[in-house]
Structures are given as C-alpha cells and as structure tokens.
TrEMBL record:
It comes from Pseudomicrostroma glucosiphilum. GO terms for biological process: carbohydrate metabolic process; tricarboxylic acid cycle. One of its GO terms (molecular function) is acyltransferase activity, acyl groups converted into alkyl on transfer. This is Citrate synthase. The keyword Transit peptide applies.
Length: 440
C-alpha cells in the first residue's frame, strides 16, 4: 500500500473475518462476572469494549499492537529516518501503526506527512470562531468547541445524509479522521496565539515538514530542534491508552451514535479537560508552583515529603500520581524521564530536577496510604516540565498538546468500529431500588 487509506482497506477484511470467527465460536462465552463493586466503582476491570489500537497491562504498561514504547522507539520511522532535524519517532508512524497494526516504511510516513500538510489549513469560519473566544476561556473549551465546529465539512455527515450503505461507513469516517488530525495542530496553535500571544497566528504549513515540525513552527518554537523533537515524542506516546480511559471511551460512545469524527473527538476533548484525566498535566505544574512558593526551589527530600503529606491531609489528590489500571510506574513517564536525562539542556533545569526528585519520594508517601492503589508517577507527572524548560510556560495550554495527540488513537478506533459494524453503545443502568430487589 502506498497510502494509509489503502493499507486500512487491506487490513479491514482480515479484521472482519477474525471477528466473525470469534462471534461464531464464542458469542456466549463469559469474559467474567459483574460484581456490585464494578457497578459502583467506575466499571473498573470490566471487559466491555472492543478497541484495537492498544492494550494496557497493569504491570507492563501500554503496548501498541503488541509493541512497547521502547519497541516503538526502535522500530517506528523517526525524524532522522525521514531526513528531518531531530531523532524521535514520528506521530505519523504511530498513527499508521495504530490504524493498521503494521510498522510503516519511511516512504509511507513521508507520504502521510505530505497528505496531512496538504489538509492542515483551517477554514476561515473556524479561525473566526476561535478569534472570537475571550482569552480567559480555558484553551481546552476553545479546543473542543472549534473541533466540533469543523463538522460543518464532515464527509461522513454528508454521506450519511445521502444514504451511504453501512458497509461503506468506514471510508468517509477515515477521511474525516485524517482531516481532523491534520487540522488539530492549526486549531491548537491559533488558540495559543490568541490566548498567549506566541507564534504568529498564521498557518504557514510547509509541505515538506512532518505534522509536528509544522505544529512547532506554528507555535513559534520551530527554531528549537529540541522542542520539536520533544513534541514528537510527547505526541507519539500520548496517542493511545486502550479504550477505557475517559477521552477514548467518550469518543467511542459518542461515535457509536454515528456522530461524525469531529463531534466524537470534540466530546473526547471535553473529557480530557477534567483534572483527574488530561488536565492533570496542568495540575501538576500548579502543584509544583505551590510547592516551590511554600518550600523553595532547592527543597530537601524531607520538606518535599512533608509537602506531599500535607497535600494528602488536605483531602486533595497529588496530581500526576496514581492510575486506574497501572500498578507500576507509567512507561510513558519513564520515556520522558529518559529524554530529560539524555538531553543536556534539560537535565539540569530546576523543574526537571524537581520532577525526578518528587518521583522518588511520592511513591513512598502515597504508598503509606492504604487506599491509593498505585503510588507511582503517571505520564502527567513528567510532561509539563519539558514543555516549561523549552519555553512553553503557559500551563493551561498543556492539555491542548495532549489533545492534539489523543486523536491518533481515538479516531482510528472510530474507523475500525464502523468497519466492524459495532452497534450503538447502550449499557444497562440500575437504581438503588432495582439493586436491592435483585440482590436480595
Ligand atoms: N493522590 C491522592 N489520592 C489518590 C491519588 C493521588 N494521586 N490517587 C488515588 N487516590 C485516592 C483516590 O482519590 C481514592 O480516594 P477515595 O477512596 O477517597 O475516593 C483512592 O485513592 C482509591 O483510588 P484508586 O483506586 O487508587 O484510583 P482510581 O482508579 O479511583 O483513580 C486516578 C485513578 C488517576 C484518577 C487517581 O489516581 C488520581 O486522582 N490521580 C491524580 C490525578 C492524575 O494524575 N490523573 C491523571 C491520570 C493519567 N491521565 O493522563 O489521564
Ligand atoms: C490516559 O492516557 O488516558 C490515562 O493514563 C488515563 C487512563 O488510561 O485511564
């Protein structure tokens, strides 16, 4: 296949066959029973959703079609492989892997980058919508609203109105998904310019650059190879975290009503904007700032320990720590830490040093609580420090960067859900009275 769409078209019949075989043999096989704890505990652990891109293991962390982050770093075409400045894997490579299960060649990635660049410019009505938002409106609210507004030109919506057959749904869903992934950097950069005055607000998209090379230019960091490469790594590893997390699940749920990819992903962004989910990367910086103001930049381990204890005692969460599934340090945290250690200009940055220091103390303090199931750092504990060190100090923009990334996983799932003909999601809910009666 030379294009991603051709590769997806080749992958789909095989998936359909495998699913058909599973259904024929196992439609009534149990995948586990449901306890009251599952119903009241946010459905933790219930296997109730099909999601192809990645699987999260509590101990080993995320695997994208079976590949760990270090595997991806070794195997996926990188900036260097495409002759670009930098060396990190490209989010386009990750997108290809997530959609097809295959590692693309450098040429395939180059073609995909060019396609994304050709579709990256925003229609002027969306620019006007973004420009009309008050600077004080949170960037994530702006991001979700602008993303929803892009559905004006949805190929899926138009095809559905014309009466497209169910077997063909995946094709305009794919077209919308690529269109949206191409435009998210421009939406984000326009918001950054309006709210924080950085970048030049224009969408000068270079057809020979990768998605993140262009994103970095639009944000005003194009001269920094370090920042551009950091963004590539950041956006590649935040792309997918199986299907049950709030943003991914939201896009799946909303998409199951056949809402188009723009609407489905807008809804996902609104979930990502919550402090227990994507906004945690902003919260971490707020927490760090509070700590620096209270105990200073050169705080001792004992002072940090006390600050962590005080946070817990005040009834707040320590942002960047804990996880609903993981029971070990998040390999995405480790990947970012490795990047910091291997990058001389970052290694000694005060915030980077503090991230590393806190990551050794917090697990001990959180581990003393008998209710916190995972005392280890998640990705959000590390991600803001790199952005800050490269000059992006505006922490209310961090979740937008996460939001540019999560589309890489959420949108392929929508394509696959339509290719596999998955139905509208509609679980059963129970009232207390109904539970009392059925559990007597
Ligand atoms: N600080 C303080 N308390 C915590 C923390 C933490 N970092 N993590 C869990 N707990 C508490 C949790 O609030 C709950 O308390 P209660 O019973 O009083 O409601 C108790 O420990 C049990 O929670 P868990 O079963 O360990 O975690 P759960 O699966 O419910 O939640 C998170 C997972 C990620 C929401 C939770 O660990 C948290 O709030 N962490 C801080 C926010 C954060 O970093 N979120 C980012 C997640 C990654 N992402 O990018 O989305
Ligand atoms: C994510 O990346 O979505 C978070 O780690 C949250 C999760 O997986 O539950």
């Amino acid at each position: 296949a030379s294009t991603l769409k051709e590769a997806v078209a080749e992958a789909i019949p095989k998936k359909q066959e495998r699913l058909k075989a599973l259904k024929a043999k196992h439609s009534n096989t149990s995948l586990g029973d449901i306890k009251l704890d599952n119903l009241l505990g946010g459905m933790r652990g219930l296997k109730v959703m099909l999601w192809e891109g990645s699987v999260l293991d509590a101990e080993r962390g995320i695997a994208f079609h079976g590949k760990s982050i270090p595997d991806c770093e070794k195997e996926l075409p990188s900036a260097k492989d495409l002759g670009l400045k930098g060396k990190e894997m490209l989010p386009e490579s990750m997108l290809w892997l997530l959609l097809t299960g295959e590692v693309p060649t450098a040429d395939q990635v180059r073609g995909l980058s060019a396609e994304l660049a050709s579709k990256g410019k925003l229609p002027s009505y969306v620019e006007k919508i973004i420009d009309s938002f008050p600077k004080t409106l949170h960037p994530m609210t702006q991001f979700a609203a602008a993303t929803a507004a892009l559905n004006h030109d949805s190929a899926f919506s138009a095809a559905y109105t014309k009466g497209i057959k169910k077997a063909e749904y995946w094709s305009p869903t794919f077209d919308d998904s690529i269109d949206l992934i191409a435009k998210l950097p421009a939406v984000a950069a326009r918001i950054y310019y309006n709210v924080h005055g950085k970048g030049d607000g224009k969408q000068a998209i270079d057809p020979n650059l990768d998605l993140i090379g262009n994103f970095s230019n639009m944000l005003g960091y194009g001269d920094s190879v370090g920042m551009t490469d950091f963004l590539r790594l950041y956006i590649a590893i935040h792309g997918d975290h199986e299907g049950g997390n709030v943003s991914a699940h939201t896009s799946h749920l909303v998409g199951s009503a056949l809402s188009d990819p723009f609407l489905s992903y807008s809804a996902a962004l609104l979930g990502l904007a919550g402090p227990l989910h994507g906004l945690a990367n902003q919260e971490v910086l707020v927490w760090f700032k509070g700590m620096q103001e209270s105990i200073g930049q050169e705080a001792s381990d004992q002072q940090i320990e006390k600050y962590l204890e005080d946070t817990l005692a005040s009834g707040r969460v320590v942002p960047g720590y804990g996880h609903a599934v993981l029971r070990q340090p998040d390999p995405r945290f480790s990947a970012l830490s490795r990047f910091y250690e291997q990058t001389p200009e970052l290694r000694d940055q005060p915030l980077v040093k503090m991230v590393q220091q806190v990551s050794k103390i917090a697990p001990v303090v959180l581990g003393r609580s008998n209710k916190i199931k995972n005392p280890f750092p998640n990705v959000d504990a590390a991600s803001g420090a790199g952005l800050t060190a490269y000059g992006m100090t505006e922490m209310n923009f961090y979740t937008v960067v996460f939001g540019v990334s999560r589309a890489l996983g959420a949108l392929p799932n929508l394509v696959m859900a339509r290719a596999l003909g998955l139905p509208i999601e509609r679980p059963k809910s129970m009232s207390i009275e109904a539970l009392e009666k059925s559990l007597k």
